[in-house]
Specification:
It comes from Celeribacter indicus. Pfam families: Lipase_GDSL_2. The chain is built from nine helices and five strands. The chain is of the alpha/beta class and 195 residues long. It has one domain: Rossmann fold. α2 crosses α9, α3 runs parallel beside α5 and α5 packs parallel to α6.
């Protein structure tokens, strides 16, 4: 019988499940999705609210404990909120991916959509980090954590229906949609970990 693959989800409040009951958060819902689709994997919540790519880099070595066979990396939202230079975020994410590669742990890299607060050049530079690094490190890639919500159309309706009152974090229904969209990529990640 194939072994159960432990998937560490290294991220920030979106991964951690900010503002939600534990069973409604991203990692719990992802576990439910994997179980329902007969994917033999255990999801480990390595999300820390407020974490930046630097925080993720500082935690990656102990996150990649011997039982971890695959990793989801979903960081960068807090870097953007703080206006951290894209070059710095790129460097930190590179360090995280190098750590995973050194331990032969396959990665699903999850991007973000940067707002226009710091101008178009900043946004383009930040958003380019994810496809670039995914290609460089041959990771699986999910372009934008929140795209399953933002792609639904009229933002005011989306915000009212799928986002918490803070206007940033998905509510329980929003998390369900994100997991439905990302689940197949995570299943692919688990397969990659078995190869």
């Amino acid at each position: 019988m194939a072994e159960t693959i432990t998937v560490a989800a290294l991220g920030d409040s979106l991964t951690q499940g900010y503002g939600l009951m534990r069973e409604e958060g991203f990692t719990a819902r992802l576990q439910d999705w994997l179980d329902a689709h007969d994917v033999d994997a255990t999801v480990l919540n390595a999300g820390v609210s407020g974490d930046t790519t630097a925080g993720g880099l500082s935690r990656v070595d102990w996150t990649l404990s011997p039982e971890v066979g695959a990793m989801i990396v979903a960081l960068g939202g807090n870097d953007v909120l703080r206006g951290i230079a894209p070059e710095t975020a790129r460097e930190n994410l590179t360090g995280i991916l190098e750590a995973a590669r050194a331990k032969d742990v396959p990665v699903l890299l999850v991007g973000i959509a940067a707002p226009n607060n710091y101008g178009a050049a900043y946004r383009e530079s930040f958003e380019a980090i994810y496809p670039d690094l995914s290609q460089e490190f041959d990771t699986l890639y999910f372009p934008n954590f929140l795209a399953p919500l933002t792609d639904l159309g009229e933002m005011s309706e989306v915000m009212a229906r799928y986002v918490q009152a803070d206007g940033i974090h998905p509510n329980a229904e929003g998390v369900k949609l994100i997991v439905e969209a990302m689940g197949p990529k995570v299943a692919e990640l688990v397969e990659r970990a078995r190869d």
